[in-house]
């Protein structure tokens, strides 16, 4: 543990459950690194991700964005290719982009969008895009003919959330420089989306635990009953 981490940990009561406002103020206060640290939200859910009917996945546009410049790759042809270029996509193409990824191991992008007619081609990249969480998906709005809207939302701060094998969701909700107030707004937007996405098959307590932390700082527990208050 570094000196900054140890000093930061002293400010947090490990046994306390804080309100979102208190927790995010502490996260900002304990982010002592020299760079603008990312603030992350971690939510443990009462679901069994091994069952298809208990998957929790979706996307939400954070009101204040993520503070990160996102590079978007779009797989499209013809008019949709022109539309994507006009909408500000960083890279647009079809077979040429697939070849670049396969042959050059090129991954200079953060999000992939594809029109539905391109998914047969994009499927070839499943083995490399899937493990990186980059595979386009209709549930997250990245498989669509409305490429302009998809790009606009991603650039505005759209984040994808997905429960992992341990039933936890990890999502960035902004930067330390945002300040607690903006982070709380982003926090609530994300929690609202996660709660709305509760699967019908989930039994018992849905939101089991919630915490926030900065890139280099300690975790701060949030009271699960206070997340939307």
What this model shows, in words?
By secondary structure, the protein is of the alpha/beta class. The protein folds into two domains: 13-66 and 158-226, Ribulose 1,5 Bisphosphate Carboxylase/Oxygenase (2-Layer Sandwich), CATH 3.30.190; 72-150, Ribosomal protein L1/L10, domain II (Rossmann fold, 3-Layer(aba) Sandwich). Helix content is 31%, strand content 21%. The protein has eight helices and nine strands. The strands form three sheets. A four-stranded antiparallel sheet has the order 7-1-8-9. The longest helix has 17 residues, at 180-196. The protein is globular and about 55 Å long. It starts with a helix and ends in a 7-residue tail after the last strand. The mean pLDDT is 92. Part of the 50S ribosomal subunit. GO terms for molecular function: rRNA binding; structural constituent of ribosome; tRNA binding. Protein L1 is also a translational repressor protein, it controls the translation of the L11 operon by binding to its mRNA. Binds directly to 23S rRNA. The L1 stalk is quite mobile in the ribosome, and is involved in E site tRNA release. This is Large ribosomal subunit protein uL1. It holds the Pfam family Ribosomal_L1.
